[in-house]
Amino acid sequence: MTTGWSLFVIFLVVLNIGGCAWLLWWTSKRRGDEARNAETTGHVWDGDLTEYNKPLPRWWIILFWLTIAYSVAYLAWYPGMGNFAGTSGWTSAKEHDADKAEADARLAEAFGRFDGMAIDEIAGHPEAVAFGARLFQNYCAQCHGSDARGARGFPNLTDGDWLWGDSPDQILTTILAGRQAAMPPLAAAIGGDIGVTEVTAYVQSLSGIKADPALAAAGQARYAGVCAACHGPEGKGNPILGAPNLTDDTWLYGSDFNSIAEGIRNGRNGMMPAHEPIIGETRSRLVGAYVWSISHGSNEAATEAP
């Protein structure tokens, strides 16, 4: 807050407190004879019910003075007068940090026994899998779905198809460090729209989808010259690059002609953020254990966890 705004806030606070104090002082003066002979407001009901304009009861005034004294003490103890920090040194940031430290200590006590443990080993502990399931719902379900079955452009984590490999270390690396998958636009490299059509037909034929034989045959040569560098000469993919297997029935963006052609023509960019800075290593291991459990058959505890 700038000095000008600070002075403005202080002025408003002092003005309000001073105004309240003056009003109470002026009101408390109207006692004695004036209280006994108080003027009326001119309002009379039922012929004999008259409304008087009398001073406030003394106990009310005392309570108001105590309220003003309390507000002055509060503003001296806590920050509330512009840039004045208060004599207590309290700040919302300090309170947040203290609460966070307390919560982190409780979490460390709960999760600490799983530090450094492999995720397939952690998956053998139902309590750990339950922890991981809750963390998954908080941090991963937005993309992969609450059932971890993914969506278009977001991998299904319950099957056996893995772009970057399904070993415990590979899954953990994916969660900790994130992944950046990029397929460049290839229309110009494979011969324009005709090349895109032919390569699309060939890619469909690799996975057993019915395609025009002549187009697929023409697309095979174009595929071998450009696409095989990442997906392999047989189209089985490369986990090191995150290049998908084109010979199975699992498709991240769809297996219809238009979806495949769109990917070849315009490229694809998939990014999973690194979660170690977000939830830390141990909690990342717990999430990995949950994912491991639902994708490798040991999902009894995982099913009950949410």
TrEMBL record:
Superkingdom to which the source organism belongs: Bacteria
Chief subcellular location equals membrane
Tell me any Pfam family this protein matches: FixP_N
Provide the binding site for heme c 1: 140, 143-144, 272
For activity, the cofactor(s) needed are: heme c
Question: Which sites bind heme c 2?
Answer: 183, 227, 230-231
**Gene Ontology terms, MF aspect:** electron transfer activity; heme binding; metal ion binding; oxidoreductase activity
Q: Which free-text remark accompanies the cofactor?
A: Binds 2 heme C groups per subunit.
Q: Where in the cell is it found?
A: Cell inner membrane
- Where, by residue number, does the polypeptide cross the bilayer? 6-26, 59-78
What pathway does this protein act in?
Answer: Energy metabolism; oxidative phosphorylation
User: Biological process (GO) annotations?
Assistant: oxidative phosphorylation; proton transmembrane transport
Q: Which SUPFAM superfamilies match?
A: Cytochrome c
> Which controlled-vocabulary keywords does the entry list?
Cell inner membrane, Cell membrane, Electron transport, Heme, Hydrogen ion transport, Ion transport, Iron, Membrane, Metal-binding, Oxidoreductase, Repeat, Respiratory chain, Transmembrane, Transmembrane helix, Transport
Domain spans labelled Cytochrome c: 127-207, 214-295
User: Which GO cellular component terms are attached?
Assistant: plasma membrane
Task performed by this protein: C-type cytochrome. Part of the cbb3-type cytochrome c oxidase complex.
* Cited PANTHER family: CBB3-TYPE CYTOCHROME C OXIDASE SUBUNIT FIXP (PTHR33751)
The subunit field of the Swiss-Prot or TrEMBL record says: Component of the cbb3-type cytochrome c oxidase.
**Family per similarity comment:** Belongs to the CcoP / FixP family.
In Swiss-Prot or TrEMBL terms, this protein is called Cbb3-type cytochrome c oxidase subunit
Native organism: Arenimonas caeni
Traced from the root, the source organism's taxonomic lineage reads: Bacteria, Pseudomonadati, Pseudomonadota, Gammaproteobacteria, Lysobacterales
In the UniProt record, the gene name given for this protein reads ccoP
